[in-house]
Amino acid sequence: MGKYLFFKGCTIPAKLPNVERLALEVLPEIGIELIEEEAFSCCPDPVQLQGANHRFWLATAARNLAIAEEKGLNIMTLCNGCLNTLAIANHKLKENTELRDAINKILSEIGKEFKGTIEVKHLLQILKEDIKLDSLKNKIKKPLTGLKIAGHPGCHLLMPDEILNFDDPTDPVIYDEFIEALGATAVDYLSKIDCCGVSLALVGNKEGNNKSIHTKIIDVKSAGAQILSTGCPFCFTQFDMGQISASREYADLKENKIPILYSVELIALAMGRSLDDIGYKTHKIKPALSI
Question: What domains does the chain contain, in order, with CATH numbers?
């Protein structure tokens, strides 16, 4: 069984506690042992904070990486944003000696040092590279046969691809292969690589944000999907809660609602959990599903 230090991030414990719980309960059943670590801070945010104060952003990420190095464990996260920050920081500090020395000078004030001895991976990367999707297929107990699921990988899992090296950012297929490994039918659709729109929401562009949500949901529904799945808490919230807010501007969303399931929720269902077990009732969009 692979052992990883669980980087929960901020959003999942605060807004999606069922996702955190399911990860700790279900992932060991497919060969992923998670070790909790209370000393971690925010990753921090790969968009706003990186742009506002790059040195602070990098030093904070380096502190988190140093904590994992002290434990001698690679990091696993369920958050695209956390992956993006920590993986990019890890890469930059490993490649740039001058930058590493400058950041370590800051870390020395709290008794930490970045050495570059661990890796950072998203759950989907672990399933692809460490567990292997064929092995995952053999581990599931209740294949999701008959379900048509569209996957939304999300921007921060795909780019920058020269660092993350997860999938082709212009034509991603790994999330579809993950869906197929669980026994469901993966649904391809035109706007698969489009952003969820959260960056527009962060800068107050409500119109652009709602348009992003509308485009994605209508596209997924038109392609015949019953469920939209993602492995990013920001994307999840955008598409779950966002369908409600965007429907005030786009009335057709009221008639075309689609449930959003987190990647680890799909795994839990394929391991025999029920909709009640995964906390489906806590979702904002929750039409009846037959699983």
Answer: 2-123 (1.20.1050.140), 133-282 (3.40.50.11810)
CB 76 within 8 A of CB 123: yes
Q: What is the pLDDT of residues 4-20, one digit of tens each?
A: 999 999 999 999 999 99
Q: Contacts from 171-178 at CB under 8 Å and sequence distance 24+?
A: 174/124, 174/128, 175/124, 175/151, 175/229, 175/231, 175/263, 176/151, 177/128, 177/133, 178/124, 178/127, 178/128, 178/133, 178/136, 178/151, 178/263
Span 81-107, pLDDT tens digits? 999 999 999 999 999 999 999 999 999
The phi-psi region of residue 197 (left if phi > 0; otherwise alpha if psi is between -120 and 50; otherwise beta) is: left
Q: Find tokens 């994605």 and name the residue.
A: 216
Global pTM reads: 0.96
